Amino acid sequence: MSRPGTPAPPRPTRERYRGERRKVSSALWALPPLLALGLVFLYPLVLVVRQSFTQDEGGPLSTAPYAQVFAEASFTDAFGNTVLIALGATAGCLLLGFALALVIAFVPFPGSRAIGRFIDVFLAFPSFLITLALLFVYGTAGLANGLWADATGAAGGPFDFLRTPWGVLLAEITYFTPFVMRPLLAAFSQVETGQLEAAASLGARPARIVRKVIWPEALPSLAAGGALVLVLTLNEFGIVLFTGAKDVVTLPVLIYTKAILDGDYTGACVVAVVNIALSLALYALYRAVAARAGGARTPSTGGDGHRARA
Amino acid sequence: MLVHSKGARRAVWTLFLVLFLPVFALPLLVIVAASFASSWSGALPSGPTLAHYRDITQGDSLRALVTSLVTAVAASLLALAAGTWAALAAQRLRPRARKVLDALFMLPVAVPSVVVGLSLLVAFSQPPLLLNGTPQIVVIAHTVLVTAFAHQSVTAALARLDPAYEQSAAGLGARPAYVLWRVKLPLLLPSLTAAAGLCFALSMGELSATMMIYPPDWLPLPVRVFATTDRGALFAGAALAVVLMAATLLVLLAVSRIRTKASYR
Q: Which chain A residue has its CA at the smallest distance from B201's CA?
């Protein structure tokens, strides 16, 4: 667009006119995809917000639907469930992800590269498969209870938590931990091994090295990964739907129940607006944190872009 | 190397495998094992059978697989076209306008998929655009959800592209359309195929928005997996899940570079 080193134009008005025209044509090129996005995404979202303020079809806008939904016990329960599960899952993912990434990066073993590939394969699959798998591992008919029954001769096993919030928590930690590990592994690959060797040869024990050398390097990526997982767990639907538990209702499940099972579109739109506000705020936070984390590692924007954003 | 003594290193590795294998490897293995079984009451599944797979080769399950494949191909191509166009157009904009465009195209990632489904339901259940109950609304929903990843992937590839190629082509007198078609797009091709594979995989596994909008005659595979397991046929559901994973993996291997949604957020 800009041509550095161009000598001062002899007739500035004409040059500026030409520049303006180029800018306008660039803007025109951006228009078709924007219009498409507007039609199938932004305009429908606006309609959701409008519907959430509409008590009766064609009636005046009012905040009555919000008052009504906020007063329902099902909404407060779902809100509490969503936030608690998201926070718990994020904490679990950070802990597990940090521990696993630490081993892969700094205590490498034959095949630890293959594990990185495996994680990529893992993320290619939809999240609800994890819940399905857990049914075979911890379900009433499944591996863990079967092992217990074989070992003790009892009719069944003690594992029966899949239909509780703990089942959802376990599934979400399983599925979302790789989202923390990927940026962490990228950050760890930037740590100078010489630094670790120096610290070790000066007599620092592994715990101290982790705390003093690795932890500061990991912090931005941990923050970015944590914020991302928080958004994803707030919005997760498949995992919760597949557990089939009646008493574990999160905001996305409440939206589905209200709209599809009850036919209450206005109520569903109210919950949707709350959910969008929550996720967008956290997503903005994530982008800010991730940009800082990426910027700290790769000062030039040109670098390995997908790594920095991962 | 953080841990130097051999014994301690062994202990760390053992702990790692104890954490890693049950959490990540086991789920995929049990689904495959269960898909060949008819019951699971002991430590291992029992009653080996191929009946679940035989059922998939006909009837509703086969139709669900075809539905998913058609939807995923259509949504990936649309998303690739829209995402690439937007990324190319954004590159010519001023920095601030570019930021706004990028943010708008990333927005569907932050909005819950269920809400994307709900919004399409609200918007297109009334004239002038009455799409509710048609296959098109499913394709539109998937396209909305995966375009962000196509856009992000192409944007990252464009940032890595050496501008010298297009500059020299333009310097030799090539017109912008020719530069785009003969220089830029061929250079972007590897990223485009990788993005297409990612979009396809995401669309194949999409459940949240689909649950909100699928018409009875356009029922994709994930919904079929849910319906099957929900009525208690866990082992048949496992077989369907294996088919879903296999189809996804085959396409990802075909585009040769496995990239996942974690790469572009």
A: A124
Beta bridge partners, B39, equal B46
Assign a CATH topology to domain A66-109+175-309.
MetI-like fold (1.10.3720)
Q: What would the DSSP string read from start to end of A139-183?
A: SSSSHHHHHHHHHH--SS-S---TTSHHHHHHHHHHHHHHHHHHH
Q: Rounded distance, CA B233 to CA B220, Å?
A: 18
Residue B251: closest C-alpha in chain A: A124
Nearest to B248 among A44, A118, A125 (CB): A125
Mind telling me how many Å the CA of A7 is from chain B's nearest CA?
18
Task: Report the gap between the CA of B76 and the closest CA in chain A (Å).
Answer: 15
User: Do the chains contact at B111 and A276, CB–CB below 8 Å?
Assistant: yes
Helix (H) or strand (E) holding B124: none
Domains and CATH numbers, chain B: 61-263 (1.10.3720.10)
Give tens-digit pLDDT for B53-104. Answer: 888 887 888 899 999 999 999 999 999 999 999 999 998 888 888 889 988 9
Cβ contacts of A136 within 8 Å, gap of 6 or more = A142, A143, B30, B31, B33, B34, B40, B45, B234, B238
Contact assignment for B245 to A29 by CB distance below 8 Å: no
User: Tens digits of per-residue pLDDT, A199-251?
Assistant: 888 888 888 888 888 888 888 888 888 888 998 999 999 999 988 777 789 99
| A235 touches A83 (CB < 8 A) | no
Residue with tokens 């928080």: A230
